[in-house]
Amino acid sequence: MTTRTLAVVSAGLSQPSSTRMLADKLAAATAARLAEDGVEVKIVTVELRDVATDVMNNMLTGFPSPRLDAVIESVTGADGLIAVTPIFTTSYSGLFKTFFDVLDNTSLTDMPVLIGATAGTARHSLALDYAIRPMFTYLHAVVAPTSVFAASEDWGSGADTVKTLPNRIDRAAGELAALVLRSDRSSLVRDPFTLDPSFNPTGGFQAS
């Protein structure tokens, strides 16, 4: 059976967290879709709150701690990524953005990505399209067409009879699974000595 690794990044701050809940549901749905195609999925979940200090120190010093380095490798080396953030002040959380700021800007090239967000009200749902999606597009990731936003009421009885949260999750998971199946990232190797046009090491990906 073919095996793929799915990295799940959750920027929730509380515990338990609705952001983590959404991330887990997206991961489970994607794994189920891939299993239908005979693909075994290894899910690696990263709670950014657990490495928040490491992320900030990396911003200040330019060097990741061993713990953060392991997290970065697990995310950038995955076959697909699910990234979910709470919405603060109409955009992604500072911790979410800072984590992706410390990644090499070529390390997510061609990465299949499913984005999600949570907030108290659906008024913040557009942040997925005007803030989060452009960030991953800048990083040259391949972002699934459907993004998933969950407001507080989405965790209730599901009064939205047109597009309930489970329906949105299932659709997005199907899109990510298809992207992972078509992706050839597993045939790429990480080369820390790759040079960008300014001749600085980028740690980008090159074909083996």
Automatic annotation (TrEMBL):
<dbReference type="InterPro" id="IPR005025">
    <property type="entry name" value="FMN_Rdtase-like_dom"/>
</dbReference>
<keyword id="KW-0285">Flavoprotein</keyword>
<keyword id="KW-0288">FMN</keyword>
<feature type="domain" description="NADPH-dependent FMN reductase-like">
    <location>
        <begin position="6"/>
        <end position="155"/>
    </location>
</feature>
<dbReference type="InterPro" id="IPR023932">
    <property type="entry name" value="CE1759_FMN_reduct"/>
</dbReference>
<dbReference type="InterPro" id="IPR051814">
    <property type="entry name" value="NAD(P)H-dep_FMN_reductase"/>
</dbReference>
<protein>
    <submittedName>
        <fullName>FMN reductase</fullName>
    </submittedName>
</protein>
<dbReference type="Pfam" id="PF03358">
    <property type="entry name" value="FMN_red"/>
</dbReference>
<dbReference type="InterPro" id="IPR029039">
    <property type="entry name" value="Flavoprotein-like_sf"/>
</dbReference>
<keyword id="KW-0560">Oxidoreductase</keyword>
